[in-house]
Amino acid sequence: SGIRDENNNTYNPKIVRIGLKAHHSVKAVSMDYLIQQKLSGVASDGGRRGAGEYDRIRASLLDEAAIVFSTLSFSGSAIFTRMTRAFDVVIIDEAAQAVEPATLVPLVHGCRQVFLVGDPVQLPATVISKTAQNLGYRTSLFQRFQAAGFPVQMLKIQYRMHPEISVFPSKEFYEGILEDGEGLNKKRPWHSYSCFGPFCFFDVDGVESQLSGSGSTVNEDEGSGETLEGPFPVDLWRPIKGSYRCKHR
Fold first, then answer.
1. I need a surface site. Which of 7, 64, 231, 236 has the fewest CB within 10 A?
2. Angstrom distance (rounded) from CA 107 to CA 85
3. Are 82 and 64 in contact (CB under 8 A)?
4. In terms of domains, do 172 and 201 share one?
Protein backbone atom coordinates (compact mmCIF):
# COMPACT_ATOMS: atom_id res chain seq x y z
CA SER A 1 0.00 0.00 0.00
CA GLY A 2 0.99 3.63 -0.26
CA ILE A 3 1.39 6.28 -2.95
CA ARG A 4 3.71 6.18 -5.94
CA ASP A 5 6.04 9.11 -6.60
CA GLU A 6 7.29 10.48 -9.93
CA ASN A 7 9.79 7.60 -10.13
CA ASN A 8 7.06 4.99 -9.51
CA ASN A 9 8.44 4.25 -6.06
CA THR A 10 6.02 3.60 -3.21
CA TYR A 11 6.07 5.78 -0.13
CA ASN A 12 3.71 6.48 2.77
CA PRO A 13 3.28 10.22 3.39
CA LYS A 14 1.92 11.63 6.61
CA ILE A 15 -1.79 12.27 6.10
CA VAL A 16 -4.29 14.11 8.26
CA ARG A 17 -8.02 14.47 7.69
CA ILE A 18 -9.65 17.54 9.22
CA GLY A 19 -13.39 17.75 9.69
CA LEU A 20 -16.37 16.42 11.59
CA LYS A 21 -17.66 12.86 11.89
CA ALA A 22 -14.83 11.00 10.20
CA HIS A 23 -15.81 7.68 8.64
CA HIS A 24 -14.31 4.65 10.37
CA SER A 25 -12.25 3.91 7.25
CA VAL A 26 -10.27 7.15 7.73
CA LYS A 27 -10.29 7.26 11.53
CA ALA A 28 -6.58 6.46 11.74
CA VAL A 29 -5.70 9.71 9.93
CA SER A 30 -8.39 11.96 11.40
CA MET A 31 -7.15 14.97 13.35
CA ASP A 32 -9.13 14.17 16.51
CA TYR A 33 -7.84 10.59 16.63
CA LEU A 34 -4.22 11.64 16.09
CA ILE A 35 -4.52 14.27 18.82
CA GLN A 36 -5.91 11.72 21.28
CA GLN A 37 -3.01 9.41 20.48
CA LYS A 38 -0.53 12.20 21.18
CA LEU A 39 -2.32 13.28 24.35
CA SER A 40 -2.34 9.75 25.73
CA GLY A 41 1.43 9.72 25.32
CA VAL A 42 1.72 13.06 27.11
CA ALA A 43 -0.39 11.79 30.01
CA SER A 44 1.71 8.65 30.40
CA ASP A 45 4.80 10.84 30.67
CA GLY A 46 3.21 12.90 33.42
CA GLY A 47 2.73 15.93 31.18
CA ARG A 48 -0.16 18.38 31.27
CA ARG A 49 -3.18 17.98 28.98
CA GLY A 50 -4.54 21.52 28.93
CA ALA A 51 -6.02 23.49 26.05
CA GLY A 52 -2.61 24.90 25.20
CA GLU A 53 -1.15 21.42 24.76
CA TYR A 54 -4.11 20.42 22.60
CA ASP A 55 -3.57 23.42 20.28
CA ARG A 56 0.17 22.81 20.13
CA ILE A 57 -0.29 19.19 19.06
CA ARG A 58 -2.91 20.13 16.50
CA ALA A 59 -0.63 22.75 14.91
CA SER A 60 2.27 20.30 14.94
CA LEU A 61 0.24 17.58 13.19
CA LEU A 62 -0.85 20.03 10.52
CA ASP A 63 2.70 21.23 9.86
CA GLU A 64 4.09 17.69 9.72
CA ALA A 65 1.45 16.38 7.31
CA ALA A 66 2.38 15.97 3.66
CA ILE A 67 -1.28 15.65 2.63
CA VAL A 68 -4.24 17.37 4.32
CA PHE A 69 -7.83 16.40 3.51
CA SER A 70 -10.67 18.80 4.23
CA THR A 71 -13.98 19.99 2.86
CA LEU A 72 -14.03 23.42 1.24
CA SER A 73 -15.96 25.00 4.09
CA PHE A 74 -13.85 23.43 6.84
CA SER A 75 -10.67 24.66 5.16
CA GLY A 76 -11.68 28.11 6.38
CA SER A 77 -11.53 27.10 10.05
CA ALA A 78 -9.12 28.75 12.47
CA ILE A 79 -6.88 25.68 12.67
CA PHE A 80 -5.35 26.54 9.29
CA THR A 81 -4.24 29.96 10.52
CA ARG A 82 -1.69 28.18 12.73
CA MET A 83 0.23 26.77 9.77
CA THR A 84 3.81 27.96 9.50
CA ARG A 85 3.99 27.35 5.75
CA ALA A 86 1.65 27.52 2.77
CA PHE A 87 0.51 24.53 0.76
CA ASP A 88 2.51 23.60 -2.31
CA VAL A 89 -0.53 22.26 -4.17
CA VAL A 90 -4.28 22.53 -3.60
CA ILE A 91 -6.47 19.95 -5.35
CA ILE A 92 -10.21 20.60 -5.32
CA ASP A 93 -12.32 17.59 -6.26
CA GLU A 94 -15.85 17.98 -7.68
CA ALA A 95 -14.93 21.60 -8.39
CA ALA A 96 -17.65 21.92 -11.03
CA GLN A 97 -20.28 21.36 -8.33
CA ALA A 98 -19.05 24.10 -6.01
CA VAL A 99 -20.00 27.78 -6.06
CA GLU A 100 -17.14 30.21 -6.61
CA PRO A 101 -16.86 31.60 -3.06
CA ALA A 102 -16.59 28.06 -1.66
CA THR A 103 -13.78 27.26 -4.11
CA LEU A 104 -11.85 30.34 -3.00
CA VAL A 105 -11.87 29.39 0.70
CA PRO A 106 -8.87 26.99 0.67
CA LEU A 107 -6.89 29.34 -1.56
CA VAL A 108 -6.62 32.07 1.07
CA HIS A 109 -3.90 30.06 2.83
CA GLY A 110 -1.64 30.39 -0.19
CA CYS A 111 -0.28 27.76 -2.59
CA ARG A 112 1.93 27.38 -5.64
CA GLN A 113 -0.46 25.38 -7.80
CA VAL A 114 -4.21 24.75 -7.92
CA PHE A 115 -5.88 21.84 -9.68
CA LEU A 116 -9.63 21.95 -10.21
CA VAL A 117 -11.03 18.47 -10.84
CA GLY A 118 -14.64 18.10 -11.92
CA ASP A 119 -17.19 17.45 -14.62
CA PRO A 120 -19.16 20.51 -15.80
CA VAL A 121 -21.59 18.19 -17.59
CA GLN A 122 -22.86 16.87 -14.27
CA LEU A 123 -25.23 18.74 -11.96
CA PRO A 124 -24.04 22.21 -10.83
CA ALA A 125 -23.99 23.42 -7.26
CA THR A 126 -27.36 23.49 -5.51
CA VAL A 127 -28.53 27.10 -5.29
CA ILE A 128 -32.05 27.57 -3.91
CA SER A 129 -32.42 31.28 -4.63
CA LYS A 130 -33.77 31.96 -8.12
CA THR A 131 -32.32 35.48 -7.97
CA ALA A 132 -28.86 34.09 -7.22
CA GLN A 133 -29.22 31.59 -10.05
CA ASN A 134 -30.16 34.33 -12.50
CA LEU A 135 -27.13 36.35 -11.41
CA GLY A 136 -24.80 33.45 -12.18
CA TYR A 137 -24.08 32.31 -8.63
CA ARG A 138 -24.50 28.67 -9.68
CA THR A 139 -21.61 28.99 -12.16
CA SER A 140 -18.51 27.30 -10.74
CA LEU A 141 -14.98 28.67 -10.93
CA PHE A 142 -14.18 25.59 -13.03
CA GLN A 143 -16.81 26.58 -15.61
CA ARG A 144 -15.74 30.22 -15.59
CA PHE A 145 -12.12 29.33 -16.33
CA GLN A 146 -13.23 26.91 -19.03
CA ALA A 147 -15.44 29.54 -20.69
CA ALA A 148 -12.53 32.01 -20.57
CA GLY A 149 -10.39 29.65 -22.64
CA PHE A 150 -8.17 28.12 -19.97
CA PRO A 151 -6.96 24.67 -21.09
CA VAL A 152 -8.96 21.74 -19.70
CA GLN A 153 -7.50 18.25 -19.70
CA MET A 154 -10.25 15.66 -20.10
CA LEU A 155 -9.81 12.19 -18.64
CA LYS A 156 -11.15 10.19 -21.56
CA ILE A 157 -10.99 6.62 -20.24
CA GLN A 158 -13.78 5.40 -17.97
CA TYR A 159 -13.54 2.25 -15.84
CA ARG A 160 -17.00 2.10 -14.22
CA MET A 161 -19.53 1.35 -16.95
CA HIS A 162 -20.07 -1.51 -19.35
CA PRO A 163 -19.62 -0.26 -22.95
CA GLU A 164 -23.34 -0.77 -23.59
CA ILE A 165 -24.00 1.77 -20.83
CA SER A 166 -21.25 4.26 -21.64
CA VAL A 167 -22.14 4.60 -25.33
CA PHE A 168 -25.08 6.92 -24.57
CA PRO A 169 -23.36 9.45 -22.24
CA SER A 170 -20.34 9.43 -24.53
CA LYS A 171 -22.40 10.46 -27.56
CA GLU A 172 -24.90 12.66 -25.73
CA PHE A 173 -22.58 14.61 -23.42
CA TYR A 174 -18.93 14.03 -24.38
CA GLU A 175 -18.99 14.33 -28.19
CA GLY A 176 -18.24 10.61 -28.58
CA ILE A 177 -14.68 10.81 -27.22
CA LEU A 178 -15.24 8.83 -24.01
CA GLU A 179 -13.25 5.58 -24.13
CA ASP A 180 -13.80 2.34 -22.23
CA GLY A 181 -11.13 0.81 -20.03
CA GLU A 182 -9.66 -2.58 -20.81
CA GLY A 183 -11.84 -5.57 -19.94
CA LEU A 184 -15.07 -3.64 -19.35
CA ASN A 185 -16.86 -5.49 -22.15
CA LYS A 186 -16.18 -8.85 -20.51
CA LYS A 187 -19.39 -10.69 -19.73
CA ARG A 188 -20.23 -11.40 -16.12
CA PRO A 189 -21.97 -14.66 -15.06
CA TRP A 190 -25.31 -12.93 -14.46
CA HIS A 191 -25.38 -11.44 -17.96
CA SER A 192 -26.72 -14.75 -19.30
CA TYR A 193 -30.06 -13.97 -17.63
CA SER A 194 -32.23 -11.61 -19.66
CA CYS A 195 -33.05 -9.44 -16.66
CA PHE A 196 -29.43 -9.08 -15.54
CA GLY A 197 -27.64 -7.81 -18.60
CA PRO A 198 -25.30 -4.79 -18.52
CA PHE A 199 -28.36 -2.70 -17.72
CA CYS A 200 -32.09 -3.21 -17.38
CA PHE A 201 -35.27 -1.31 -16.53
CA PHE A 202 -37.56 -2.14 -13.63
CA ASP A 203 -41.14 -0.95 -13.86
CA VAL A 204 -41.74 0.46 -10.37
CA ASP A 205 -44.85 2.63 -10.43
CA GLY A 206 -45.33 3.41 -6.75
CA VAL A 207 -47.16 6.38 -5.30
CA GLU A 208 -45.58 9.36 -3.58
CA SER A 209 -46.85 10.24 -0.12
CA GLN A 210 -45.97 13.04 2.26
CA LEU A 211 -44.33 12.30 5.58
CA SER A 212 -46.29 13.38 8.63
CA GLY A 213 -45.07 16.70 10.02
CA SER A 214 -42.60 17.16 7.18
CA GLY A 215 -42.47 18.78 3.77
CA SER A 216 -40.64 15.76 2.35
CA THR A 217 -42.21 13.10 0.14
CA VAL A 218 -41.51 9.38 0.06
CA ASN A 219 -42.08 6.64 -2.51
CA GLU A 220 -41.82 3.32 -0.69
CA ASP A 221 -42.27 1.16 -3.80
CA GLU A 222 -39.50 3.00 -5.60
CA GLY A 223 -37.26 2.64 -2.57
CA SER A 224 -37.86 -1.11 -2.54
CA GLY A 225 -37.04 -1.25 -6.23
CA GLU A 226 -33.68 0.42 -5.66
CA THR A 227 -32.57 -2.58 -3.61
CA LEU A 228 -32.43 -4.43 -6.93
CA GLU A 229 -29.39 -2.48 -8.06
CA GLY A 230 -26.10 -4.34 -8.22
CA PRO A 231 -24.56 -7.68 -9.30
CA PHE A 232 -27.13 -10.15 -7.95
CA PRO A 233 -26.51 -13.80 -7.23
CA VAL A 234 -28.59 -15.92 -9.57
CA ASP A 235 -30.27 -17.46 -6.50
CA LEU A 236 -32.22 -14.22 -6.03
CA TRP A 237 -33.68 -14.31 -9.52
CA ARG A 238 -36.73 -16.49 -8.84
CA PRO A 239 -38.26 -14.46 -5.96
CA ILE A 240 -37.52 -11.21 -7.78
CA LYS A 241 -39.18 -12.43 -10.98
CA GLY A 242 -42.49 -12.82 -9.19
CA SER A 243 -42.51 -9.21 -7.99
CA TYR A 244 -41.06 -7.17 -10.84
CA ARG A 245 -41.56 -6.97 -14.58
CA CYS A 246 -38.15 -6.70 -16.19
CA LYS A 247 -37.30 -5.38 -19.59
CA HIS A 248 -33.77 -5.84 -20.83
CA ARG A 249 -32.21 -3.87 -23.62
1. 7
2. 13
3. no
4. no
